[in-house]
Amino acid sequence: MEDPRLILLDPRDTVLVARRRLRAGDTLEVGGTTVTLASDLPLGHKVARCAMAPGDTVVKYGAPIGVVTVAIAPGAHVHVHNVVSAYTPTYTLDAHKPPETAQ
User: Fold this and answer.
1) Phi-psi category of 76—alpha, beta or left, where left has phi over 0 and alpha has psi -120 to 50?
2) Confidence (pTM)
3) What is the residue-level pLDDT of the chain in tens, covering all 103 positions?
4) Fewer beta carbons within 10 Å, N or C terminal of the chain?
């Protein structure tokens, strides 16, 4: 059973979502293990449900949302510092950049 301060949105998810703001030092039950938060976790942010390695897919809502860039331990904050988004391909973003102006 997961910590009641976290929500599992879909049984396929590799992340849990904070139901409220959590503080560094708080202990959580994640995947049958007690973990201690290393940093504050804002409301709605994700924590790892399981260990993830670089290249692994992050799943939320039962759908892929990103790719892990550095190893993530169970209970660790999952965000832009350790995941790259899978929502919008980079080449799509690059195509919409404004043209550079000559100096």
Assistant:
1) beta
2) 0.80
3) 678 999 999 999 999 999 999 999 999 999 888 999 999 999 999 999 999 999 999 999 999 999 999 999 999 999 988 999 877 555 555 555 555 655 4
4) C
Instruction: Please give the single-letter amino acid code of residue 12.
Output: R
Indicate the residue type of 4: P
Quick one: CA torsion of 64, 65, 69, 72, rounded to 10 degrees? -80
Cβ-contact 8, 16 below 8 angstroms = yes
C-beta of residue 6 within 8 angstroms of C-beta of residue 19: yes
- Amino acid identity of residue 82, one-letter, is N
Give, for 90, the enclosing helix (H) or strand (E): helix 90-95
With tokens 């550095």, the residue in question is 70
Residue type for position 48: A
